[in-house]
Amino acid sequence: MPTSSKKEKLIEGVLPESKAHELLYKMVLTRAFEENAEEMYGLGKVHGTMHLSIGEEGVAAGAGPALRPSDYLLNTHRGHGHFLMWGGDLNRMMAEFMGKEAGYCRGRGGSMHIADVESNNLGAQGIVAGNLPISVGVGLSIQMRKTDQVVLTLFGDGAANEGAFHESLNMASIWNLPVIYLCENNQYAMSMAFERAFRVEQVSERAAAYGMKGLTVDGNDVIAVYKAVSEAAEQARKGAGPTLIEAITYRWKGHSKSDRQLYRTREEVKKWMEKDPIKRFAAKLDVDEAGLKEIEKKAKEEIRKAVEFADNSPEPDVNTILEGIYA
């Protein structure tokens, strides 16, 4: 059959409708993944700790898809959604979470150190702001190789008060490196409220100190994040240097599994839950409640199959425990 010459509808003039629906599904899949991970943790199937991104799916949905497959990702410890949006395979992710040989890091990385170097996903960091200095090295590599790649570096508002933040942004600026610094401001660094830790109203205001562009967007608005990251990438590819983007969002769950959440009220959490990025994006795509439930049903079935895959995957051989360790 001949293909139609009719142009595809663009959501808010920037995102193709088919791509938008794909992202909506991945947002729902991300939340289902996180909810399942929390359940498995309670059952003792996931060890260590984990940092859930429920409520922050809009940032991941807007950021990763705005870049090219040839670009680089430096993830944060709360980065499961970003990993999925970067094209992560659900089965291998689940296997990694459960410490299985079939996982991305052969079960050795787990939640906070999962990586897929083959897809330029350079991994998550358990150290707050630990990926920021690495972004300078990646950006310098891009510049020296004279490619038009960029590196997306993710971190939270707590990391913006680490020395590594200031040193990294300063160096990226003076060297004019193609780095996009994306701060997911979810209002709390562990239990420290943003307004208690900053004298500026927005993290993005700090960009002025380094002579780079800075802007703040609604992190629960997928299109707003998509536009900001797309524009920052375009500028970086032209040689205009780094950009600092702050995405305002909120984590519905605690900082980690040990967090009793005594520092915030239920009313505050409820208020932010009413700004659910999934429901907001679904409304933009004219997906009603019944349609969203069908998407959720499909996502949960995909999660179930991934858990089954991981359950049936082999445990790492103890004789290989030192493989991949360097000193």
From TrEMBL:
<keyword id="KW-0670">Pyruvate</keyword>
<keyword id="KW-0560">Oxidoreductase</keyword>
<dbReference type="Pfam" id="PF00676">
    <property type="entry name" value="E1_dh"/>
</dbReference>
<dbReference type="InterPro" id="IPR050642">
    <property type="entry name" value="PDH_E1_Alpha_Subunit"/>
</dbReference>
<dbReference type="GO" id="GO:0006086">
    <property type="term" value="P:pyruvate decarboxylation to acetyl-CoA"/>
</dbReference>
<protein>
    <submittedName>
        <fullName>Pyruvate dehydrogenase E1 component alpha subunit</fullName>
    </submittedName>
</protein>
<dbReference type="GO" id="GO:0004739">
    <property type="term" value="F:pyruvate dehydrogenase (acetyl-transferring) activity"/>
</dbReference>
<feature type="domain" description="Dehydrogenase E1 component">
    <location>
        <begin position="25"/>
        <end position="318"/>
    </location>
</feature>
<dbReference type="InterPro" id="IPR029061">
    <property type="entry name" value="THDP-binding"/>
</dbReference>
<keyword id="KW-0786">Thiamine pyrophosphate</keyword>
<dbReference type="InterPro" id="IPR001017">
    <property type="entry name" value="DH_E1"/>
</dbReference>
